[in-house]
Sequence to fold (89 residues):
Amino acid sequence: MEISVDRERCLGAGMCALTAPEVFDQDTESGRVLLLNAVPSPTQAPATRKAAYICPSGAITVTGPRPAADGLSVGAGGANSGPAGRSGG
Fold:
């Protein structure tokens, strides 16, 4: 799993920093997303995906394998379609 952020698209809602504080923070000056860890650990993956999904501006993109229900990885790329097919969240 790899994470990228679009700081220009970010609205500064802070949901990502609240949901996955090990991966995201907010810039103290602009309030926009700061990516702390572009390659989160497997234990950080669920919160990271949730943060991307709930991002109101869609500024977070998650790429890489999505874990299967049994814990095995399946698929690759663009693994975080948000509401209405929006990439990011």
About this structure: The CA atoms of residues 51 and 68 lie 19 Å apart.
